[in-house]
Specification:
Elements: H1 2-30, H2 34-46, H3 58-106, E1 111-114, H4 118-130, E2 134-138, H5 141-149, E3 154-156, H6 162-167, E4 175-178, H7 183-196, E5 201-205, H8 211-218, E6 222-224, H9 226-239, H10 241-251, E7 252-253, E8 256-257, E9 259-264, H11 276-279, H12 281-285, E10 288-293, E11 301-302, E12 315-320, H13 322-331
Parallel strand pairs: 1-2, 1-4, 2-3, 4-5, 5-6
Antiparallel strand pairs: 7-8, 9-12, 10-11, 10-12
């Protein structure tokens, strides 16, 4: 793209040089004023066929022939370059966006990321790594173009508008993240999204310390403050460096990445009504069960007892590799 733009600049400069050269040449050869010489140059380059402004001698005719040949090639190449640029740029972009809109209309149980700034992009990377379906909404055309190049389903627009959220198929989505640059934008987007879908799980970025309450009143299920988390982590690294180093090792052991995951027990699972020790989850999957959240409860039971009875709707927090988590999802009959 940059190379094509540079070519266009060079061609335009060349045409201006031809016009200037032709004007000076005709002024000298035909002994006329600047306006008439410019007029003669333009009608010669454009080959419109108007009559000459003065009697042409042999030198003027040869000069005209050379000027026509040079200008025709230059103008034709400039025109073809401009047309090519428009076709490959705007039409290609429009075609891609139309195809993306078709794909977005088909997906279900996906996530929506509102805002692809520094915070939002981290969510995008995580979703891509996990291979889950998601749609991004952003106001910046440049950001949208970059994400489209990466193959990310992206919509250009204001995430707080119902029409844009509807384009993202919000009625079929299971979760939404608002990572917009201001609390006001996040609050309004959460409010709009909640009115459009009661079952949607919404997580919002909170910038100011007083924003959390407003976001939850607007309908957010959870809020995250990147500033608070970053500051807390820095302080922890100073106070408890060995603990933080241990956590880093646990979640990234060499090339093997261990993730904390949540797996819910669904109907027809062979885990239902079994005690934790009888489920043999560590033996069958290699996962570590860190906590269990009983159905209908808001509290997590950390380091659950081996006699803990598993029931339908219980959520297990486990630590392990993605392949091991997939094995447990099969055991739990979880359908994503």
């Amino acid at each position: 793209m940059k190379e094509r733009r540079n070519n266009i600049i060079v061609l335009v400069s060349l045409i201006l040089t031809i016009v200037l050269t032709g004007t000076i040449g005709y002024k000298i050869l035909l002994d006329t004023n600047i306006v008439d010489a410019l007029y003669m140059t333009v009608i010669t380059i454009s080959t419109v066929g108007y009559g000459e402004i003065a009697e042409m001698d042999a030198e003027a005719k040869i000069f005209s022939i050379v000027l026509i040949f040079i200008s025709l090639g230059t103008v034709s190449y400039l025109f073809s370059t401009l047309v090519s640029s428009l076709l490959e740029g705007d039409l290609k972009k429009a075609w891609r966006r139309r195809n993306m809109e078709k794909e977005i209309r088909k997906i279900k149980n996906h996530y929506i990321v509102c805002g692809a700034g520094e915070t939002g992009y981290q969510s995008i990377k995580k979703f891509k790594d996990k291979g889950v379906e998601f749609v991004v909404i952003d106001k910046s055309e440049a950001v949208v173009d970059d994400l489209v190049e990466e193959g990310v389903l992206t919509i250009l627009g204001d995430a707080s508008e119902e029409s844009i959220l509807r384009k993202a198929n919000i009625e079929s989505a299971k979760g939404l993240i608002t990572a917009l640059p201001s609390d006001a934008e996040n609050v309004y987007t959460v409010l709009t999204a909640r009115q459009m879908s009661d079952d949607l799980y919404i997580v919002s970025r909170a910038i100011n310390k007083n924003a959390t309450g407003k976001l939850k009143k607007a309908g957010a299920d959870n809020t995250i403050s990147p500033n608070e988390i970053g500051g807390s982590r820095m302080a922890s690294l100073m106070i408890r460096p060995n603990v933080m180093s241990f956590l880093d090792v646990v979640t990234r052991a060499g090339d093997v990445i261990l993730d904390l995951e949540e797996v819910t027990i669904f109907p027809n699972s062979d885990l239902i009504d079994k005690e934790l020790k009888d489920s043999e989850i560590p033996q069958r999957t290699g996962l570590i069960v860190l906590a269990i959240k009983k159905k209908g409860s808001e509290e997590l039971s950390f380091n659950p007892s081996s006699s803990e009875k598993l029931e339908e709707g219980d959520a297990m927090i486990v630590l392990g590799q993605s392949e091991q988590v997939d094995d447990l999802r099969e055991m739990a009959n979880e359908k994503e």
